[in-house]
Protein: SdiA-regulated domain-containing protein
Organism: Paradesertivirga mongoliensis
Amino acid sequence: MNRISPLLLAIFLISCGSSDRKTSKQDTVSKETFEPKGGKLYTVPAELVEISGISFVSDSVLVAVQDEEGILFFYDLNKEAITRQYEFWKGKDYEDLAVVGNDLWIVNSSGALYELKNFNNGPSKPNVFKTVLKEENNIEGLALDKKNNRLLLAVKDLSMDGDEKEKDIYAFDLKTKTLNIQPVFSIRLSEIETFFKGDEIEEVSKKILKAVGNQNLNKVFRTSALAFHPKTGELYVLSSLNNIVAVLDQKGSITKVLELDGKEFIQPEGLAFTQDGRLFVSNEGQGKQANIIELKYED
């Protein structure tokens, strides 16, 4: 298991199972380790202490939202500073956002979507789309599924069918502007659990086992963000709890589980890729200085 040492950051592939056991779904999971090349940390100002979502406008500028105010913040990675900001709506609990061409979509925790046309030109009145999702579902993840012309919305707490053993991801069709109430992906929490069992488990994952031992799988994985890898098409799903990322293939099967290890990962809430595959994670401050971390690795 390798670490990203420059900032004491690490991204881990946790895989279990020994070669002398019978073949199972767990044993077929790729055991390829991401080889880290180094990491970079960007500190962000106090306005973004509760940064809750990021998306790239270009490979050097990202747009961020924090969950206490309806304000967009444009952060330049080269200048390591907010270069502009503007209010798009009142209220709070804005959790994630996704750039779709010239437009920007933002989701709040109750599943309402806000469409800002030509958002780079400055403030304009958003188109608001209510969905059947509710506050109890606690939507925290939003991502563009460009291939299927839809947005994906991920629950942090309860799926619409009330099944506490999974975290569902729903699709909002960008053409019809409607939400499919049947999940397009489901993360079975028992599958996450299997990655942290077995006689080859690493010491670093014991904190995960402690949560599993409480028999409360809802406390093992709580979705806070998601994003598609621009090259592989895999869906990366971030959990703010236990600092892990589930990587799903195009069929929705978990192929990897990654762990983010280091004191800089205060509370991972945002996840985004640049077009060339650079991965960034944003962290709420939780009484400390919030940050954005770039993780470099081999695909």
Q: What stands out?
A: Residues 206-213 form the longest helix (8 residues). Confidence is low (pLDDT under 50) at residues 1-37, 199-206. The CA atoms of residues 234 and 249 lie 5 Å apart.
